[in-house]
Specification:
Blueprint lengths: L2 E10 L10 E11 L4 E5 L6 H9 L6 E6 L2 E2 L10 E4 L11 H10 L9 H14 L15 H13 L5 E5 L7 H18 L2 E6 L2 H7 L2 E6 L2 E6 L1 H6 L4 H6 L6 E8 L2 E4 L2 E8 L4 E7 L4 E3 L5 E10 L3 E7 L8 E6 L10 E6 L4 E4 L6 E2 L1 E3 L3
Helix pairs in contact: 2-3, 2-4, 3-4
Amino acid sequence: MKIVLENLTKIFPAMGKKGGPDVVAVDHFDLTIPDGKLVGLLGPSGCGKSTALYLICGLQKPTKGRIYFGDDDVTDLPTENRGVGLVFQNYALYPHMTALQNILFPLQNLKGRDKLSKEEMNKRAVEAAKLVQIERLLERKPSEMSGGQQQRVAIARALVKMPKVLLLDEPLSNLDARLRLQTREEIRRIQRETGITTIFVTHDQEEAMSISDLIVVMKSGAINQVGKPQDVYDDPANQFVAQFLGTPQINMFSGRIDNGSLYIGPEKVMDISCECDRTEVTVGVRPEGFEVDPNGRLTCDLRNIEVMGRDISIVSTNEASQAEQIRSIVNSDMDYGAIKDKVRFRLKPHKVFIFKPDTGERIRFTETEK
Ligand code: ATP
């Protein structure tokens, strides 16, 4: 099921006389979610991810804009008629019911033409349980299951009505690190097997990047960028997106473009061609964008070398760095014992991004040889 959001906006009005300004939780969203894809809605806390999800499922009404499922305008349709399955962060299972009873529950509430026979309900519940691999736990109550198993029951409960759209709101937040990894792989597998268009809300960029076909990066209610995870990482639309994606974070420096050269502090680090000249800029360098080179043009003071097995992390400082430390990741094959007080880096141009300091807008450039 393709989903189209058209100029979707949700404003929460200020409460009372001293309630402060209105909150624009979702700000003129224009987005097409292709049929059968898993889309990660990603952004910092409070950026409007959950509100966007609630608008799509009909738990909240938009202030403006339309929502289409396929060719149907569902903007005014109640949640129960939209054919959506919902999974929340707290699995919200009924504690006194077994896993099977929890999964059966949405089917028992079907009325009229949709009403199913007992056999049909059981068949569907067992099928959903098999899909999430909990068919052996059906007689257990939630208190007798791990967090990951409970979350699978919640997913089976959302799937049992055969929804056209599956909406997941931070479904992994309550799980420990190992279970998070395992369950996110499970969600990916279930989505692939069922082909249900799925929207997955998270503030965890690594989580979104690892399982999504497409990510939507949000800031203050607005979409900043939509694309395949790798494309967005490699080609961020602005400084916010560049800083939001990637662990360790991109390193930011105060710099300058002058006469076709890019400077970080006083050092000329690259010759470039771009539309701007003689201007202050912010320079972002991904951790993997540094190469240790005795003739490198960026000189930093070495703080520490952290050995991580396959890679090493060089921690250094530079007056122009906007953070206390610069973190660069290099291959552990290099002879890092030779690095003493100063470390010189050559920058890989495709890992360097330049932004306007006031707006964070991207300044595109190409490296030139002088
Ligand atoms: P988190 O990751 O912390 O859950 P989020 O990105 O999902 O955050 P939302 O919960 O959608 O963000 O909230 C977006 C903004 O709308 C926030 O500023 C929030 O305070 C505000 N907001 C959300 N629900 C309401 C409401 N019912 N009434 C008033 N303001 C609200």
